[in-house]
Design goal:
Length: 521
């Protein structure tokens, strides 16, 4: 059975998704989870484009020893040097560089000749190779390029020392049959291709990213580039969980597998969804809430008689198990800690006392606390712990028919002040947000608001994910509580904390001045 390398680009191409920007802490948390998932390569960022990406790549290169760390670079020498600077302490660095090969990109964007492009490829790869032994070359927009020219450019890259050549469908244009043909053409016509790793990187503009990636595997590629939940530019990248589970479930067909710990897939999906503020649709393959739900009578009947009648994978295979914690509100620390260990929670990076307290508070209000509840508590804790300028201390709302929704909010600031205010609104959530706005006066617009229930039942935890926009940037917020008004308040305070931390003190001062001048909302 061939082993396919999973090159995870959630933290680079995935993070390029509109409104999906992650903080350094979130990138590191996701990176740690990717190492538990045992992906082969983590593409940690694009260091020459921002100090944040530089820091993320540098930190992961130092911290994560058991995985290849890749970083993307443009072809200019100063970009390659800066990328290497961030990457050089990695145990297994992979310097990834990219140049477009389609005529439309060459003529309209790069404005050079094909000959000059081949020379540029050789120069770029040689320069990269002088710093890093492991170099990946990507032919951007390969699927809209002349296949002979792609082969010529790959041949030059390999001659210059590239150890990985990547065939991207950058704009999600190819159909599986065509993509397979291109891969086959490269396999048969590039001198030296047998000596290097051949990779595919597909986007989902026409919904074919996973099919195209799997078509590439059938043609013999040994690396697939993909993201958790398929997040990424525009319609996103190929979805990692779908590729991994297709290979596992249909090993008979693909004769290929991965070394991934697939039981970590669901947890990883949840983490990426919550940190990026991108809710996973319930019908999403493998990780959607309904992916293992059987509702029609005929299917339920089959399932009761024999699970395999309608189930090709088990929920536990991807970590979607529904084990109910046997602990209740009388349970002690010791048993709770043991259970966290049992379900794979990393206690070294967890504030155990805070999680335990939240568990006890939940167990007081909810009959059964499931592992999914515990996961939501952990996500909530992580979000609330992030660079907290303000913490929600209390929220109280009155609302109902024939009444004006009114909210009172009390926040604690990180310098120990207690701040309170009240406001009216069009509904209870609006009233809470108006009251918070009176305390944290940063102009912003709420662009997305979604509430999900973590588990079934009237006493379920509610998760609120929001997006706010300020100064042309988007910030996500997350909160979980059995009371969705409290969860909404937490999500809003969380998004404002992120905004303040990312935009900095200057932005706060500008924002206050704008409010004072009556410019802002
Ligand atoms: O889509 C693309 O072409 C890319 C390259 C950098 C591989 O993301
Ligand atoms: Zn891409």
């Amino acid at each position: 059975m061939r082993q396919i390398r999973i090159f995870d680009t959630t933290l680079r191409d995935g993070e390029q998704a509109a409104g999906g920007a992650l903080t350094l802490e979130e990138k590191l948390e996701i990176g740690r989870q990717l190492t538990r998932l045992k992906v082969d390569v983590i593409e940690a960022g694009f260091p020459s484009t921002s100090p944040g990406d530089f820091k993320a790549v540098e930190t992961m290169s130092r911290e994560f020893r058991d995985v290849e760390i890749a970083a993307l670079s443009g072809f200019r020498e100063n970009q390659l040097e800066r990328t290497w600077e961030a990457l050089k302490s990695a145990e297994r660095p992979l310097l990834h560089t990219v140049i477009s090969t389609s005529d439309i990109h060459i003529e309209k964007q790069l404005r050079i000749s094909r000959r000059e492009l081949v020379e540029l490829t050789g120069r770029t790869v040689r320069f990269a190779k002088n710093m890093c032994p492991h170099v990946e070359f990507s032919a951007m927009d390969a699927t809209r390029s002349d296949p002979d020219f792609v082969c010529e450019v790959f041949a030059e890259a390999i001659a210059a020392g590239a150890t990985v050549v990547n065939i991207p469908d950058s704009v999600g244009y190819a159909m599986p049959g065509e993509f397979a043909e291109l891969v086959r053409y490269c396999m048969n016509n590039v001198p030296g291709i047998d000596e290097v790793i051949v990779s595919v990187h597909c986007h989902d503009d026409l919904g074919q990213a996973v099919s195209n990636s799997l078509a590439g595997i059938l043609e013999g590629v040994s690396q697939v580039e993909c993201t958790i939940n398929g997040v990424g530019e525009r319609a996103g990248n190929a979805s990692q969980e779908e590729i991994v589970m297709a290979l596992r479930t249909r090993a008979d067909y693909y004769q290929a597998g991965t070394r991934m710990v697939h039981s970590e897939l669901f947890k990883t999906s949840r983490m990426v969804s919550s940190y990026m503020g991108m809710v996973v649709p319930p019908n999403k393959a493998v990780v959607g809430a309904n992916a293992f739900a059987h509702s029609s009578g005929l299917h339920q009947d089959g399932m009761l008689k024999e699970r395999t009648t309608y189930e090709i994978m088990r929920p536990e295979d991807v970590g979607q198990g529904h084990s109910k914690i046997v602990l209740g509100k009388t349970s002690g620390r010791h048993a709770f800690r043991a259970h966290l260990e049992e379900i794979g929670i990393d206690l070294e990076t967890t504030d155990f006392e805070a999680v335990f307290l939240a568990f006890k508070q939940l167990a007081d209000r909810k009959k059964e606390v499931s592992d999914r509840d515990i996961q939501a508590i952990l996500e909530d804790q992580f979000h609330q712990a992030f660079d907290q300028a303000y913490e929600l201390d209390m929220v109280q709302v009155t609302c109902g028919s024939n009444s004006i929704p009114t909210a009172t909010v009390r926040l604690k600031s990180d310098d120990g002040k207690v701040l309170k205010d009240a406001a009216l609104g069009t509904g209870p959530v609006d009233a809470v947000y108006q009251a918070i706005n009176r305390i944290i006066d940063v102009p912003n617009e709420l662009t997305e608001f979604s509430v999900n229930s973590v588990t079934e039942g009237i006493d379920a935890l509610g998760e609120v994910t929001i997006k706010i926009e300020s100064r042309g940037r988007t910030f996500t917020g997350y909160g979980a509580d059995t009371d969705i008004i409290v969860a909404s308040a937490k999500a809003y305070v969380n998004s404002l904390n992120r905004l303040l931390s990312i935009l900095g003190v200057e932005a706060q001062e500008d924002a206050r001045a704008a409010v004072a001048a009556g410019v802002a909302s």
